[in-house]
Specification:
The complex is a heterodimer of chains A (111) and B (115). By secondary structure, chain A is an all-beta fold. Chain A has no helices and eleven strands. The mean pLDDT of chain B is 93. The chains are: A mainly beta (111), B mainly beta (115). The interface between A and B is medium-sized, with 28 and 25 residues.
């Protein structure tokens, strides 16, 4: 299994609070991604990174920001959490085109 | 605009029979396709892929077929086993250029294999 960890694995927070999710990899892969999975929507890309300090938006980036200051860490921040951001968040990494390896996920509940 | 479509939210088959999961795409620039499998409370895991230069790729019990003219691919699982019960995601990629290594996923199909 690819060395990908996500923290926290579960979080309950209140509307309006900031939340940061962390993805850590030990594979030294160049590309990192944040997805959310929701019933009826499948996996949707939030943001991705193609190198340290190089990031770009995905299809559902509103309300989210990311940072990557080291190869191994990719942070997803919800500046002011809303109930619509209740979801399961997956981090993924890749080195080659197409093949992505996913982390175990973070279940976030915004009350 | 959904570029990768999995029109069957669920599929139920008997153990030992064939499971066929379907996927359609609209973007003619897609040239690499993947299937991922996801168990509850786990991250998706790669299952099998196919390049657009091929029309079939086989790996053990899993075969993916690609029909470029119809913009359709399918995953065949033979024989199906109860452990195959999971959500299956179809994904597609355009030719990479620079930093673009993104995948576009379908909504997934829940496969249930009954003993």
């Amino acid at each position: 299994d690819a060395g990908i960890t996500q923290s926290p694995r579960h979080k309950v927070t209140e509307t309006g609070t900031p939340v940061t999710l962390r993805c850590h990899q030990t594979e030294n892969h160049r590309y990192m991604y944040w997805y959310r999975q929701d019933p009826g929507h499948g996996l949707r890309l939030i943001h991705y990174s193609y190198g340290v300090k190089d990031t770009d938006k995905g299809e559902v980036s509103d309300g989210y920001s990311v940072s990557r200051s080291k190869t191994e860490d990719f942070l997803l921040t919800l500046e002011s959490a809303t109930s619509s951001q209740t979801s399961v968040y997956f981090c993924a990494i890749s080195e080659y085109r197409g093949m992505q390896y996913f982390g175990p996920g973070t279940r976030l509940t915004v009350l | 605009d959904q570029q990768v479509k999995q029109n069957s939210p669920s599929l139920s088959v008997q153990e030992g029979r064939i499971s066929i999961l379907n996927c359609d795409y609209t973007n003619s620039m897609f040239d690499y396709f993947l299937w991922y499998k996801k168990y509850p409370a786990e991250g998706p895991t790669f299952l099998i892929s196919i390049s657009s230069i091929k029309d079939k790729n086989e790996d053990g019990r899993f075969t993916v077929f690609l029909n470029k003219s119809a913009k359709h691919l399918s995953l065949h699982i033979v024989p199906s086993q109860p452990g195959d019960s999971a959500v299956y995601f179809c994904a597609a990629s355009t030719p990479s250029g620079g930093s673009n290594y993104k995948l576009t996923f379908g909504k997934g199909t829940l496969l249930t294999v009954n003993p």
